[in-house]
Amino acid sequence: MNNQATAILLAECPDQPGIIAKVTAFLSKNNGNIVDLEQHVDSADKHFFMRVEWQLENFSIQLDAIKDAFQEQVGSVLDMNWRIAFSGIKPRMAVFVSQHGHCLFDLLSRYQSGEWHVEIPLIISNHTTYKTLAENTGIPFYHLPINAENKQQQEASQLELLKKHHVDTVVLARYMQILSADFIEHFPNKIINIHHSFLPAFPGAKPYHSAHERGVKIIGATSHYVTSDLDAGPIIEQDIVHIRHNDSVEDLKRKGQDNEKIVLSRAIRHHLQYEVLVYKNRCIVFD
Amino acid sequence: MNNQATAILLAECPDQPGIIAKVTAFLSKNNGNIVDLEQHVDSADKHFFMRVEWQLENFSIQLDAIKDAFQEQVGSVLDMNWRIAFSGIKPRMAVFVSQHGHCLFDLLSRYQSGEWHVEIPLIISNHTTYKTLAENTGIPFYHLPINAENKQQQEASQLELLKKHHVDTVVLARYMQILSADFIEHFPNKIINIHHSFLPAFPGAKPYHSAHERGVKIIGATSHYVTSDLDAGPIIEQDIVHIRHNDSVEDLKRKGQDNEKIVLSRAIRHHLQYEVLVYKNRCIVFD
Amino acid sequence: MNNQATAILLAECPDQPGIIAKVTAFLSKNNGNIVDLEQHVDSADKHFFMRVEWQLENFSIQLDAIKDAFQEQVGSVLDMNWRIAFSGIKPRMAVFVSQHGHCLFDLLSRYQSGEWHVEIPLIISNHTTYKTLAENTGIPFYHLPINAENKQQQEASQLELLKKHHVDTVVLARYMQILSADFIEHFPNKIINIHHSFLPAFPGAKPYHSAHERGVKIIGATSHYVTSDLDAGPIIEQDIVHIRHNDSVEDLKRKGQDNEKIVLSRAIRHHLQYEVLVYKNRCIVFD
Amino acid sequence: MNNQATAILLAECPDQPGIIAKVTAFLSKNNGNIVDLEQHVDSADKHFFMRVEWQLENFSIQLDAIKDAFQEQVGSVLDMNWRIAFSGIKPRMAVFVSQHGHCLFDLLSRYQSGEWHVEIPLIISNHTTYKTLAENTGIPFYHLPINAENKQQQEASQLELLKKHHVDTVVLARYMQILSADFIEHFPNKIINIHHSFLPAFPGAKPYHSAHERGVKIIGATSHYVTSDLDAGPIIEQDIVHIRHNDSVEDLKRKGQDNEKIVLSRAIRHHLQYEVLVYKNRCIVFD
Predict the structure, then answer these.
(1) Count of structural domains within chain C
(2) Does residue A152 belong to any structural domain of this protein?
(3) Assembly ipTM
(4) Mean pLDDT, chain D, as a whole number?
(5) Catalytic residue, candidates B231, B239, B251, B287
(6) What is the full DSSP assignment across D96-143?
(7) Contacts of C242 in chain D (CB under 8 A)
(8) Could you tell me which chains touch chain A, where touching means 3 or more CB pairs under 8 A?
(9) Would C238 be classed as within a structural domain?
(10) Cα distance from D230 to chain C (closest Cα, Å)?
(11) Tens-digit pLDDT profile for residues D220-242
(12) What is the torsional sign of CA C68, C69, C72, C75?
């Protein structure tokens, strides 16, 4: 945790000697004091990944000139994919929910306590179950019911709302609708879902029923970025809880929901802290 | 743990009022002091399960008459499937191994320290890798190499050895051969396997490679009874370890092996303590 | 989970042969169908513990006569300490909170979703921080500020409120005041606290600071019944999270709070389900 | 994991801008390809820590000149405490054991399977319990019984043996003797102990008895460097297992021993991989 203004670079490029030296020399010669640096080399793929955070105080490049300078002096030289975020700018996150409220409650309690560096400008639901909860929290709530006929049109309304509220991240807090490939394309690696199983086991509907039927001794939850391939997007976070033979499907749901909300909240935090890089459907999480 | 001689009843029957009263009345009127009693009702299936252990000291029925008396006075009345084991009789367990030794080492160290109430009369392998280890431990080692041609014949030899050594339990300590349905039929719910994934995810060969490829954040191990349906038998025990993006397939193997040996050893212990009942491909584990 | 009306017996007595037989015979002859039965024998202390739950439908003893009948036919015979609860009667639980809201938020979200079989008639706080939250949930909120001078008087007011609202359980959801021995005596084994360390390590104030200072690799949370011996009451539930060298005290607090709320909620559930027996400052939890 | 020859730098110094740039520039200009780099800033203490591993192939400085060059060009400039290790040189580790063998067995199975990059030239014990085991593994075994009178003399013999065998790391695999401050001074942060509790809870003798007495719901194990302050040295690794009310002290020992051996082995691995830096009695573990 650092209360001073910082910039965060997330970058990846083919591996070669001298990458860290080049990046840190760029920061050093411009008086950028590094707060945190992590790197990873995928030795099978010979690919390099990096996250570096530095203090903006005393940094000799103006805020609006940093990206150009970096691209010219480092990015273009190393054939790098990169992005830079500034701690002063709060991410704007929309929450989609249906009728299971445990993740939404948890998320809103974190929002209200100021645990996350985020703005939540709206909540969207296909039901009205959590309208009052949203309003008590002071967040605008939009009810967009979905059926077989109106799905395309409702997604268009959702996209419009997200655009209007300058949303950059979408959280599906147990939103039981499947998003279209077209919708997903608007938010690549920016839609975070929570699935209530340890994927790749038990994808699809009713994983707790399947887990009970199979007689497993652990149940899990998986938070991942949404891709057009259902329940197969890059995994950000997973965890499990142990169960016993005397746990009914109802018990699995109850125990699982505690796990779901913790796993989702960890994934959201990683995302909001700019700690996640996606490469070949896998997440590098610099935690 | 109880050092006195005890008997253990494992029983299951359709649920109805009064089952526990009948079983405990039988024990009570014959001066059987209950050391441990656990029961479970599958309320969906309306089926009853029970494990009860009682002291044989002062028990008024002779050892060799207990089973008949129980069947006559309780079992037949309740349409019960049951078995009774005596703590004085050590289970006899064979170990099958191929070329991964971590589970075998762990198992033998428990055997040598006397942690388990078991006799291991032989180790069977399709390789000679652990011949010396077995011999140092004083356990006869049989080398039965297997190829596409001789499999049926070698299984016959294995069965003969198991019969000759009065084996009642077989542990596959990372034995990389698939047993035939015929072999398995000789040991129903008596062959314990360790699979190196959190089943049902990643069945079959090379689960650590698949886990790495999929980018999961946890890896698991599953110990289950072997059935003719590969990697689909009833699960006795499962656990997981967390991994990070910087763990290579080799790292997964290393971290996973620690997990495998612990999970397998817990499953073996449950089995040896007569704590496991199998019903509809699920394990009730009275732990 | 059972939606039908049940009775739950929690009992303990010196161990002797035939206890379960006597209890289950009492239920059986009165047509009480057992839903769940667990027992435990402390073999060192030769003491017996039991929890049994049975359906009241068809039970031949009237509700208001059960306790007398049990005492006469079983309890007095076995020198038993026991209590019987009825699933039809909702426990009434007060929540005390100061300025940390994570446990309160979590608890209220469970309350609103109907996860627990409980009535929360009031929230008491020495601050006004969560007044609006309580009111939004529809629960009366009482602000009773405490200082060195008025403590005794405020505790009297609290006791009066608890009595008026027929409260039988008190949850300290990070209530930062120490209750007097006199207050505690009114609710023996009925006040549930959450302490933010794995007791007995780091009792007292600021355990996360102490954990950071000591350089531990795990932090914990402990939910226990409150006794006059601070942080030394019988432990109902504990769990931990792993931390790394780069976690600051602030990070420990954040990660720890997720753990605290889960541990507290599990302890509350055990208590509300009548699963806990206290003996010699230890909890037997029949889960 | 990297099979090519590498060098590993572990360094710490007061924090200032440009440290990483200086270190990586030194490596880059000498053609050292970085395989792994991790850093940590203790922001409270304004202190910097770093581990960097680079390939020696193509590195333009000769092996025996690297340390001088680094000190001259980097270390002295930054007022750095540092050490450099070479992957080509195997650490030499002695194992001390008494009468509990679970950690020794586990450790030797890893040694035999080649899991660790280490040489174990000798085992020292105050008992003969594991003489045969050591000899079967081909490791010299020294029996040095200890009593109140001969302790000083036996420690002298131990030190002589360690010197003779060029030992740089000592593992106390449940060695039940307290080492003298004088002995410890010979191996600062090089003696690794396993204590069978989650320190700082239950230091000293018989922690499982204390845990049972207190009624905790988790038991732990702690691996730490030995200092003259008993059970208070810097913690390398900790983990726990959950227990229930029906676990006797014997059960705690059994479950705990599985935990001990895993925790000790992880700590040893961190040490052997040069991943641990000690600062103010805390371990920075770059894992």
Answers:
(1) 2
(2) yes
(3) 0.95
(4) 96
(5) B231
(6) EE-S--HHHHHHHHHHHHT-SS-EEEEEEESSSTTHHHHHHHT--EEE
(7) 239
(8) B, C, D
(9) yes
(10) 14
(11) 999 999 999 999 999 999 999 99
(12) negative
